[in-house]
């Protein structure tokens, strides 16, 4: 058979190749240890694997001749040292070559094995193919034979029937002749006359009957032309590769996605030959109707590799992907559909809603994504120390909500950023926020501000203007103070020590202190059990001070009007102290165990301004 | 300068002791009480001088005020001297409770027969601190002063007359303006003579009006139901008015329901010890900064006044 011939031929070639390879290896090994070079031109066998993956040998001239020549090296005894040096270098070169050769030989062996393996596979494949063809032919033969047999049987049957009919006709005519002869030989004329008429009638009738003597069936057999086109196709297809089977798309790998791109991988069955793949993808939208009538348009990319990076996608979105493989023979069925997810957009830190104290920071942010993400990662690094610049020193993972309370160390500076995370991986880092843990830092809660209060741009100075707003112009919301011209500060919920300062001028009537978050909005600060404050009242003759809680104040006199008031809150000891910060003078201390978290509160009882100073290290004297 | 221990009792982890010594200023034997906090066993401690009121000895404060726990907590030595020389055999010494024995008024008497012994001002500002610093482990530059009633007057004048000498000052129901009250007038006439201008040197309100020196922080507590307040013996409003005008920081607390007794002192002594601790235990570097700021001033007011 041809197949065997081809196989034999190829095998021969391969074995020749290997023999030559062995020989060349031997010779090179030999040369490596032969110090005296052979005078005759040595040849090295140089091997290369060309692009067609077939092996080729290129005999080439020795590429490392000794510069002095082999003869010189042997004769010149005076240059023995030099010669030895050369020999050593030559030997080293040769050793290098040998290593190269061995390496190459190993490579060849590998190729040899691969070729053999591929060949075996191909052989098997061909055998199966030919078996298929033979089977098809034999089936075709059987079918045809059965047809002919049946035709023959039909023809014989019809001929036989004709024969029987002829015999019957013959018998009938014989009997008629006999009857006529009998009548003819009849002596009795009267009887003759009596009987001749029916006989004549019968003969006449008989003569009327037409006996069909032509052959009722054709002697020829119908032999339709055999349609062997399918066999031919089969034969043709023996030498070409089969169409690939459906590739297997891999599930999404961690960190393989970005905000706008997905890296997709798939694999093929090792027997398949594929010219290119086509990757299809389309976003999975949650509000798409189940019947898929308005399913989003699918996109397609053609790639040669078994991986592809799809770009220009939406962030934090799920995509459905599938892949087909194509070769000259045809297209594979589509792979299973895989679901991949792009990573979310980075969150946006809400600077004005972050607060901190020496032990902790409360960071709040916006998701930055319309769809929900799985979680957030908060990353922090300490700045200002050499070597830790830009390196993340701590990460808090799996934060479920858009805020996180982070434990920190006092007296440091941190850069804090946030990433949103979904199944596709983490987003880019958000813009970082700088947190200094020197003191307590908070912003004012604008939504609590009485309508008459306005705020400076930096949010730390509040103004109560001279002109009275008409009551109709005041927009009271659920959270605003309606009676006391007050505002709350957003103190971090940490039960530690907090210190801040308030700057006022001589004439400003104010109340500063703390209040529970839910303190009555229609009451004056200090007038109830949910707020504690220092109140300044300017009488024509003097400054008056009250330290109000539940509407009661101790009776005290302060000789120097404080224009910068230090407020020190200590949850553990249950104290709230007020100081004249410029003079380090203690003014008053409330003793109260704050069961809930409190917020700083500030109010202006007459037109004026008040400035909050934040992030100040608490002086030593504040927490004696 | 030999000290004789009269008593020693363990108290609040430290020791409450009483010593006797021969006073050169007063020319008599004097007793003083000293509380040594636990910290004093190993470290130097600052000293708070407590001046008691009329009729008191060194015993009243240490047995009634309950100051030892707070002193132990803050690591402060409290020295409480007697309120006058005793046993000097001066005629009229024991005639009244508000003059003579138990009523030294913390002045240096200039009138006979008092001027040899009744030198309580020099005793509490000079002799006693020297004695204490020589015999106990103290920080000589970290001292403060406080007192009750007549002792409150004493504490205020000591602080106002010696700018920078005392790191802090406080008083409970002090006689703020003795020139204007019967007690003060009686005592000053007796010890200093009829010339009112010599009284001014020992009147807190007058002294405050001319005070020039490092910033003081004065804490004053006063019972609202104090009989001597209503009898115009104490006159805190006069002092407050001057301090307001002179911008000397005072926190004056009028405590409703309290009288003039040691029950009142007991109720607020912790606040006062804390007030002193704030300045006595301030970190040394802070003190250094303040000193340097002061020395930057073109005219050294401290030097001028001293």
From TrEMBL, chain A:
SMART domains noted in UniProt: FN3, SPRY
Compositionally biased intervals (Basic and acidic residues): 1-10
Pfam families according to UniProt: fn3, SPRY
Top-level taxonomic group: Eukaryota
Stretches assigned to the Fibronectin type-III domain: 247-346, 347-440
Residue span of region Disordered: 1-30
Stretches assigned to the B30.2/SPRY domain: 422-620
Matching InterPro entries: B30.2/SPRY (IPR001870), B30.2/SPRY_sf (IPR043136), Butyrophylin_SPRY (IPR003879), ConA-like_dom_sf (IPR013320), E3_ligase_FN3/SPRY (IPR050617), FN3_dom (IPR003961), FN3_sf (IPR036116), Ig-like_fold (IPR013783)
Keywords of the record: Coiled coil
Segments passing through the bilayer: none
PANTHER family: E3 UBIQUITIN-PROTEIN LIGASE TRIM36-RELATED (PTHR24099), FIBRONECTIN TYPE III AND SPRY DOMAIN-CONTAINING PROTEIN 2 (PTHR24099:SF6)
Name of this chain's protein: Fibronectin type III and SPRY domain containing 2
Lineage: Eukaryota, Metazoa, Chordata, Craniata, Vertebrata
Automatic annotation (TrEMBL), chain B:
Keyword set includes Hydrolase: yes
InterPro entries, per database record: AB_hydrolase_fold (IPR029058), Esterase-like (IPR000801), S-formylglutathione_hydrol (IPR014186)
Active site: 149, 226, 260
MF GO annotations: carboxylic ester hydrolase activity; S-formylglutathione hydrolase activity
Principal subcellular localization: cytoplasm
Substrates-to-products reaction catalysed: S-formylglutathione + H2O = formate + glutathione + H(+)
Keyword Cytoplasm: yes
Pfam family, one: Esterase
Alphabetized SUPFAM superfamilies for the sequence: alpha/beta-Hydrolases (SSF53474)
Sorted UniProt keywords: Cytoplasm, Hydrolase, Serine esterase
Entry's Gene Ontology BP terms: formaldehyde catabolic process
An example Gene Ontology CC term for this record: cytosol
Family: Belongs to the esterase D family.
Function: Serine hydrolase involved in the detoxification of formaldehyde.
PANTHER family: S-FORMYLGLUTATHIONE HYDROLASE
This protein's name: S-formylglutathione hydrolase
Gene source species: Xiphophorus maculatus (Southern platyfish)
């Amino acid at each position: 058979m041809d197949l065997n011939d081809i196989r034999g031929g190829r095998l021969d070639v391969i074995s020749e190749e290997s023999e030559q390879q062995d020989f060349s290896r031997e010779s090179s090994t030999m040369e490596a240890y032969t110090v005296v070079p052979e005078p005759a031109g040595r040849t090295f066998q140089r091997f290369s694997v060309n692009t067609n993956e077939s092996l080729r040998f290129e005999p080439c001239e020795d590429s490392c001749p000794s510069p002095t020549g082999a003869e010189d090296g042997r004769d010149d005894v005076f240059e023995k040292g030099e010669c030895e040096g050369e020999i050593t270098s030559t030997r080293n070169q040769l050793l290098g070559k040998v290593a190269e050769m061995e390496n190459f030989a190993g490579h060849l062996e590998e190729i040899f094995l691969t070729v053999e393996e591929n060949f075996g596979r191909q052989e098997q494949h061909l055998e199966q193919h030919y078996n298929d063809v033979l089977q098809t032919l034999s089936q075709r033969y059987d079918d045809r034979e059965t047809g002919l047999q049946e035709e023959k049987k039909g023809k014989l049957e019809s001929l036989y029937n004709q024969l029987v009919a002829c015999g019957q006709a013959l018998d009938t005519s014989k009997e008629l002749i006999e009857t006529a002869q009998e009548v003819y030989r009849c002596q009795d004329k009267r009887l003759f006359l009596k009987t001749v008429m029916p006989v004549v009638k019968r003969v006449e009738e008989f003569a009327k009957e037409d006996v069909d003597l032509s052959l009722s069936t054709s002697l020829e057999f119908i032999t339709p032309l055999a349609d062997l086109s399918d066999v031919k196709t089969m034969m043709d297809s023996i030498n070409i590769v089969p169409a690939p089977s459906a590739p297997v798309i891999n599930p999404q790998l961690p960190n393989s996605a970005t905000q706008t791109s997905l890296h997709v991988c798939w694999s093929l069955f090792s027997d398949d030959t594929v010219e290119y793949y086509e990757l299809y993808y389309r976003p999975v939208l949650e509000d798409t109707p189940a019947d898929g009538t308005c399913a989003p348009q699918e996109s397609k990319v053609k790639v040669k590799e078994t991986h592809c990076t799809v770009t220009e996608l939406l962030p934090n979105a799920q995509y459905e992907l599938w892949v087909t493989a194509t070769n000259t023979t045809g297209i594979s069925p589509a792979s299973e559909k895989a679901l991949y997810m792009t990573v979310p957009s980075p969150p946006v830190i809400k600077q004005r809603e972050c607060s901190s104290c020496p032990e902790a920071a409360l960071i709040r942010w916006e998701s930055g994504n319309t769809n929900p993400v799985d979680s957030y990662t908060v990353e922090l690094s300490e700045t200002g120390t050499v070597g830790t610049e830009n390196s993340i020193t701590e990460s808090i993972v799996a934060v479920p909500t858009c805020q996180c309370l982070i434990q920190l160390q006092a007296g440091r500076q941190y850069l804090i950023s946030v990433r949103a995370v979904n199944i596709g991986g983490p987003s880019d880092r958000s813009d970082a926020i700088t947190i200094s843990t020197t003191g307590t830092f908070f912003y004012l809660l604008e939504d609590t501000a009485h309508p008459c209060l306005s705020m400076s741009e930096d949010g730390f100075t509040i103004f109560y203007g001279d002109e009275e707003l008409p009551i109709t112009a005041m927009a009271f919301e659920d959270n605003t103070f309606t009676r006391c011209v007050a505002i709350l500060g957003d103190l971090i919920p940490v039960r530690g020590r907090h210190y801040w300062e308030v700057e006022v001028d001589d004439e400003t009537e104010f109340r500063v202190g703390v209040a529970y978050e839910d303190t009555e909005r229609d009451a004056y600060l200090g007038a109830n059990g949910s707020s504690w404050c220092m109140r300044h009242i300017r009488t024509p003759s003097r400054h008056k001070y009250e330290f109000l809680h539940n509407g009661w104040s101790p009776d005290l006199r302060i000789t120097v009007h404080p224009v910068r008031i230090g407020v020190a809150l200590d949850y553990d000891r249950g104290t709230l102290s007020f100081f004249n910060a410029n003079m380090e003078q203690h003014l008053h201390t409330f003793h109260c165990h704050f069961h809930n978290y409190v917020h700083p509160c500030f109010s202006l009882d007459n037109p004026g301004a008040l400035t909050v100073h934040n992030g100040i290290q608490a002086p030593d004297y504040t927490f004696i | 300068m030999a000290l004789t221990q009269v008593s020693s009792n363990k108290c609040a982890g430290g020791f409450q002791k009483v010593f006797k010594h021969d006073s050169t200023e007063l020319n008599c034997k004097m007793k003083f009480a000293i509380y040594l906090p636990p910290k004093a066993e190993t470290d130097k401690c600052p000293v708070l001088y407590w001046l008691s009121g009329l009729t008191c000895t060194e015993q009243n404060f240490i047995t009634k005020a309950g100051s030892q726990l707070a002193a132990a907590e803050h690591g402060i030595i409290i020295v409480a001297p007697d309120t006058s020389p005793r046993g000097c055999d001066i005629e009229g010494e024991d005639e009244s409770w508000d003059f003579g024995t138990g009523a030294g008024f913390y002045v240096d008497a200039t009138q006979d027969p008092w001027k040899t012994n009744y030198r309580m001002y020099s005793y509490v500002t000079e002799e006693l601190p020297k004695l204490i610093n020589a015999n106990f482990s103290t920080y000589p530059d970290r001292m403060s002063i406080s007192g009750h009633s007549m002792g409150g007057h004493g504490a205020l004048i000591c602080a106002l007359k010696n700018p920078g000498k005392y790191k802090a000052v406080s008083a409970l129901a002090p006689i703020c303006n003795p020139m204007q009250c019967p007690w003060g007038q009686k005592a000053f006439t007796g010890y200093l003579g009829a010339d009112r201008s010599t009284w001014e040197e020992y009147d807190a309100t007058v002294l405050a009006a001319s005070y020039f020196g490092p910033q003081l922080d004065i804490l004053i507590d006063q019972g609202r139901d104090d009989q001597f307040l209503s009898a115009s013996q104490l006159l805190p409003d006069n002092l407050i008015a001057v301090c307001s005008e002179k911008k000397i920081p005072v926190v004056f607390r009028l405590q409703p329901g309290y009288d003039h007794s040691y029950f009142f002192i007991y109720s607020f002594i912790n606040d006062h010890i804390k007030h002193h601790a704030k300045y006595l235990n301030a970190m040394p570097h802070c003190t250094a900064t303040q000193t340097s700021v002061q020395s930057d001033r073109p005219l050294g007011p401290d030097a001028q006044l001293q």
